[in-house]
């Protein structure tokens, strides 16, 4: 079976040990977590894990089953890239001199649709939100000039289809 | 927002004065109907032991000789009663000693609550004396776990722990309670937990799936049932029998499904899996509809998945959604409690007999009987076989004993040949294969079923892994019958070495102590036999004894267990020799 990128969305109670439990499920199967993001969700007091993996559909189904089995997980889903709207964010710290000395830097900023977050005497910081390949491209363009620091966030994603968490929770309260 | 459902019941405790966390633990246990727990004291759990002392008329604590023994005893108790077993230990080494039993309970779906002491809250994370991260360590092998650092959290967490351990697919839960939480006082009240928002233990049965299953079963020419422990845990023994009889379907069991159906029932065709029976294994690859009920297609059952029942439509009944399509793709998946789903299925099932199909099993049985069973059970050679010992126990107990087996050749022989009339009678470590399980598990089984005969069948290797529990048997006068089938080898490993490693017996020869003397040291009546002429009378004497009894049977040293599906081979490649 062919490997693909999958985004796993996990809705859960806000529980301390859960990240450990969930990461153990991946570890046991030697499946690398390519990116992980934990945040609040659209529902009060419900957390959302967004996990990206590169694997086969059989494995991702198996994993989602095991994740959903954890007591504090309300519901887990997996989606392909086509089924989600997703982005990552990156920060680039670059020497301020470049901004004045290298004309091309200004073109890169404009073409990449990135924002200048801050400028100081020594450095300035660029923020870029987009697909991973766009961020990679910008990285490649800036690299020859010297990047002082770089960081990229995990993927965040929303799905085109509905994930019916609210109705699930309502069912419990009846 | 509330994430737990709670219910006040008759046993709901309301204590008006402030009580300590430790006393609260006792009231929680009593409210959950617990009257027997197993454990071992130590520094971080001493406040609880002090309360156990005060409440000893209401709650019996059995001191095992090792914390692992406490978990296996709790498991044995849970397996024969269907209730939650409870084990208690101190922090650090006490807690880590529980892990093997917890892992065993997890893989064999046994309801158990473990309570561990922990260093005081202000010492957490400081590498304090006997501090260990038992939550981190136990996470992969528990259904749920939780650390409590405040006394007032105890009732809610324990209520949730018992609910989770026993509901849905049961499993072990660990609650780690810091010492300050045991000492501090608070206003106690207790409500049972009846629901957890994020946890759906009983999936709603899907009528359409059940109809599809019924249609497949009704149209089948060669239907075959394989049942597992899900039938026992779901208390669906009657429903299983009704299905088997109504549709005339041959039924085989996994090692944990054993005793869910009378072993003498004409449609009970035996065991599947690595050392299972010839017919059920071979015919798995000839049936047209395979009906799996409460089993999880373990690799010891299926052999090579690429050649497992490929010709058959698969119907999978299970309570755990994560088991569906995990190992074997189901054509029809019926989620739910086995009793509920089988009750819905039964009226849709047409009467049938499938006689010629059933005859296939009988024919295969004749082959297995001639080539294996006959020599195992009615040997003509000098040395005793394990199987004839089991057969004598069958005869002397009238198929009514609870058999607790350890892990190895004797376990396979016990499960192949033991006869059962009653459910919850076969207690063995299936999924984890934990040597040392049987002796402590037999203690728990006996305490859970005092009116029944409990016979432990153990190898000379596994016996020495938890032999210290003879002390528990002696101290509590627990009338278990212990049979060590001594082949002076780690027999099962030796068998693999003989078959797959050209008889290089690396570290499988055992030089054993005088087991009879050891039992005598614990004042347990004991005997050793090595000749056939003594077998019948000694087994009778053992079962007639009102007290604990130790019997060592010297058996043939290099016997092998057959049939056998070599690991990774197809069920069709089952070997008779
Ligand atoms: C704790 C543990 N360690 C190792 C094993 C591997 N193992 C499986 S069977 C077996 C041999 C058991 O020997 P014995 O208890 O004498 O029983 P026999 O096979 O001879 O009947 C071993 C070592 C195991 N299952 N459990």
Quaternary organisation of the protein chains: heterodimer
CATH class of the largest domain in chain B: Alpha Beta
The name of the CATH topology of the largest domain in chain B is Rossmann fold
Task: Please give the alpha-carbon distance between the first and last residues of chain A.
Answer: 42 Å
How many discrete domains of chain B? 3
Overall outline of chain B: globular
Largest sheet of chain A: 5 strands, antiparallel
> Could you say which structural class the secondary elements and strand pairing of chain A correspond to?
alpha+beta
Strand-residue proportion of chain A = 35-45%
Q: CATH-wise, what's the superfamily of the largest domain in chain B? A: Thiamin diphosphate (ThDP)-binding fold, Pyr/PP domains
CATH architecture of the largest domain in chain B: 3-Layer(aba) Sandwich
GO molecular function (chain A): acetolactate synthase activity; acetolactate synthase regulator activity
InterPro entries (chain A): Acetalactate_synth_ssu, Acetolactate_synth/TF_NikR_C, Acetolactate_synth_ssu_C, ACT-like_dom_sf, ACT_dom, AHAS_ACT, AHAS_small-like_ACT
Family (chain A): Belongs to the acetolactate synthase small subunit family.
EC number (chain A): 2.2.1.6
Brief descriptors of the model:
heterodimer; A: 174 residues; alpha+beta; Alpha-Beta Plaits; 2 domains; 5-stranded antiparallel sheet; 4-stranded antiparallel sheet; 6 helices; 9 strands; 34% helix; 40% strand; B: 577 residues; alpha/beta; Rossmann fold; 3 domains; 6-stranded parallel sheet; 23 helices; 37% helix; 19% strand; globular; binds thiamine diphosphate
Textual characterization of the structure:
- The complex is a heterodimer of chains A (174) and B (577).
- Chain A is an alpha+beta fold and 174 residues long.
- The model of chain A has no long low-confidence stretch (mean pLDDT 94).
- In chain A, a hairpin with a 5-residue loop joins strand 2 and strand 3.
- In chain A, the strands form two sheets. In chain A, strands 5, 6, 7, 8 and 9 form a five-stranded antiparallel sheet that branches.
- Chain A has helices at 18-28, 57-69, 96-101, 103-112, 132-142, 165-173; strands at 3-13, 35-40, 46-56, 73-80, 84-95, 115-119, 123-130, 149-152, 156-159.
- The longest helix of chain A has 13 residues, at 57-69.
- Chain A has two domains: 3-84, ACT domain (Alpha-Beta Plaits, 2-Layer Sandwich), CATH 3.30.70.260; 86-152, Alpha-Beta Plaits.
- Chain B is α/β, with parallel strands linked by helices.
- Chain B folds into three domains: 4-196, Thiamin diphosphate (ThDP)-binding fold, Pyr/PP domains (Rossmann fold); 207-361, Rossmann fold (3-Layer(aba) Sandwich); 378-554, 3-Layer(aba) Sandwich (Rossmann fold), CATH 3.40.50.
- Chain B has 23 helices and 22 strands.
- In chain B, the strands form five sheets. In chain B, strands 4-3-5-6-8-7 form a six-stranded parallel sheet, sandwiched between helices.
- In chain B, helix 13 (299-302) links the parallel strand 14 and strand 15.
- The longest helix of chain B has 23 residues, at 355-377.
- The N and C termini of chain B lie far apart (63 Å).
- The structure holds thiamine diphosphate (TPP).
- Thiamine diphosphate binds at residues 406-410, 433-436, 459-462, 487, 489-493 of chain B.
